Structures are given as structure tokens and as C-alpha cells.
Automatic annotation (TrEMBL):
Keywords: Endonuclease, Hydrolase, Nuclease, Signal. InterPro entries: Endonuclease-I, His-Me_finger_sf. Residues 1-37 form the signal peptide. The keyword Membrane does not apply. It comes from Streptomyces plumbiresistens. The keyword Hydrolase applies. GO terms for molecular function: endonuclease activity. This is Endonuclease. It comes from the Bacteria. The lineage of its organism: Bacteria, Bacillati, Actinomycetota, Actinomycetes, Kitasatosporales.
Amino acid sequence: MPVTSIRTRRWKPVAFAVSAVLVGLAAPALTATPAAATTTAYDATYYKNAIGKTGTSLKSSLHTIITPQTKLSYSAVWEALKVTDQDPNNSSNVKLLYSGISRSKTLNGGNTGNWNREHVWAQSHGDFGTSAGPGTDLHHLRPEDVQVNSIRGNKDFDNGGSSFTNSGGSLTDSNSFEPRAAVKGDVARMILYMAVRYEGDDSWPDLEPNDAVTNGSVPLHGRLSVLKAWNEADPPDAFEERRQNLIYSNYQGNRNPFIDHPEWVEAIW
């Protein structure tokens, strides 16, 4: 039986700037509260060499920890997604990432009305394609409506834009994509997982986040400042944690550390 992640949060109080409020002066602004520190069942085993570290030391340690993984073929991803992204309210369906639609598992394909395999880290950002490796890594592959997938294309992530058919609350403009509120943190943690897992020390490019929305085909993905805010605003939920545990136990044997420890985003970036 796979070990289930046990999450304990040590909540930090919101910090206030302490000063007297004088007549004619604005009250001091609140400082954003970082993600709460957590402990999990994996800290003494899987993450033991990362605990207590920060910055580049933490990033390097996590890279070493999560790099060993079983690599799937691109065709095997179809069947895996039917398990990892099963709709908790309908076992015959998968839940689509950006649109939030529940759609039959049998409707996977490339036609209108089908769902296909969305690379959250756009595969053109580093040109890694669909070969076993980043192109088939379940930690950033999700089911999505074919047309919505096309609308997202290879755009960087940012706030703002307009709605579209089957958007589910997601927005887009000429150079960026904003996922619906319920999965903004999921998207952030998937992008940052990729930046830690793929560091250019194997046959794949060094993937890194930056604060741009014009990355095109370079191995960079943005917008980092927005992704960090999304990680704070939308912490991991039961769906994301269940998905993580299935990938770890049944498919790849590695974990996304930012689902287990969202506070590590701020500790690194």
C-alpha cells in the first residue's frame, strides 16, 4: 500500500508594518504571508537530504532526489492520465485542467470534442518534444480539451486576458494564459517542478523560470513572480495530492516537492 502524504502546517501570522498612523498619512500596507511551513511523511526518508536547506543548495538537493524516475512512452501517457486525473465524482471521466470540464475517458484523441495531452511546460520552450523524459513527465502532463489546448498553445503564464469557449474561467491574450483560479497553484508547482527536475545535466535542456511572457522556443517559462503568487493563493488540494501519490507509487517513482512543501518555492526563488 503506498504511503499517503501527511501534511502538517505551521501557520505564520500575517506581518504588519508597525508605525503610528498620522493624520493625512495612509495606513501601513500588509505584507503577504508566505506559504505555511509543512511536514510530511516523506521528510525523514525521501526528502531527508533536503530538509533545512534553502536557495541553490535546496534546489540542487531536490534535483538529486527527484531525478531518478521511471520514464513513460508518450502512448502510455494516455492510459496514465485516465488514472491520475480521474474525476472524483465520476470514475468514467477525467477532469480537464484549464476548463474544469468532466469528460469521458474514452474521448481521448485529436478531434473537436476530444481531450488530449497538455504539456503545462510548453514543449517548445526547450524543444524537448514528446520523447521519454520531459515530454512524457506526468508531473506536468494533464488532460485538456483539444481546442482549449490549442488556445493555450505555448504561451507563458500571466494574469489577464479574455474568456473563450470552454474556458472554465481561464483567460488568454496575445502572449499569455491565465488558468482558472482552482488550478493556478497546480500550474505554478508543475512549472517549478520542471525547473528543478531538468537542470541540463542529462540529454535535456536546462529548464528555468523567468519573469517574461515572450520566451518562445528558449528553455525558459514565465512569469515567475505571478507563478509564486499563484502558489501562495492556491495551496495543494486533495485532487493534486492524490494525483501526486499515484504518479509516485504507480508510474514514475518520483515526487513534486512543491506539492509536499509549497514553502520551498519561496525558499528557492
